[in-house]
Amino acid sequence: MSNEPNPVAVETPTAVEAPAAIDTAASTRTLGRRLRDLATRMALYDIVVLAYLALVPIALVFTPPSAPRDRVLRQYLALLATVATFVVAARTRRWHRSRFVGVGYRLGLASSMAVTYVLLGDALPLLNPHTLDRELFLLDLDLLGVEPAILLQRWTTPPVVDWFAAFYLSYFVLLTLFLMPPVLFSKNERLSGELATVVLLTCAIGQTLYAFVPGFGPLYATTEAFDGPLAGNFWFELMTNFVSGAGAKKDIFPSLHTATPSGLTIVAYRYRHGPVMRWVWPFVAFATANIIVATLLLRWHYVIDVVAGLVLAATCAFVAAEVTEWDLTRRRERGVLGAWPRWPLSSSDEAS
Questions:
Q1: What is the pLDDT of residues 264-323, one digit of tens each?
Q2: What 3-state DSSP class applies to 69?
Q3: Tell me, what DSSP letter sits at residue 65?
Q4: C-alpha closest to that of 49 among 113, 142, 125, 123
Q5: Is 90 part of a structural domain of the chain?
Q6: pTM for this predicted structure
Q7: CA–CA gap between residue 209 and residue 198 (Å, rounded)
């Protein structure tokens, strides 16, 4: 009888590695579930801001390498990382009630588009070195038979120029005073949600379109068509210095000076029966009308830019109302975290 051992089945590594494989699969499922939960808790304005802040760096990667491109790319990535950190933290149960996260999240969203507006001054020439001023000018002539900026030059006396220059600058004050208090302090999630959505969505779409339809506006592109340069006093000089120092330069289509205040006016009018908006909305409407005229009289925009801005405002205001209502309803029905994280001035038992 042979002393050789009976052949036995050799154990495969699979049996040993099975627990590790199970752990990996479980970890993957857990990660996927957490990501789905995070997406469920996010609001539209979260997604809009993060998508826009990611879009510009991605586009910059495909531009020719240069020192200016690398600098702007680092700035956008730093902004994206900062805002994304607070957005993700604000949408987790662990950090949703954190005072620090509440401040960072609200300030990050509210200031993100202002920061990108400044960064666009360097980004737009890299993204699209061309201009479409001639095409926009000819389109105005086809639509109206005349360029409004040229037609309005008969009224460009220094007092008139100063009046509209002040309103042109008031655009930034209007956004700050109209957006910050509701977003930072209001417990009305519907109002703050609509305001945040209409402003952030309008700015994100508008700033994206700047890269596709770049131009300098009638002030620089059709100088020879005017009788002479504009002349003003204090407000005109302040506006000129501000725009030349911090403006995005090729930011004309659509006119966000038209779109954003118009969107705010629509939201304010929608809430006109409230205790605050009943008094606020007429002033916002008056300021918006003057800002729109200023964009034409001061030769910053073509009329087609203004028309595009009005269409953008109406569209974003409609989307903001519908999406905000849907978002708040689903949060109540599913028990999802509130639309806004805790504000540090709230009491310890409050959750936004």
A1: 999 999 988 888 888 889 999 999 999 999 999 999 999 999 999 999 999 999 999 999
A2: helix
A3: P
A4: 113
A5: no
A6: 0.83
A7: 16
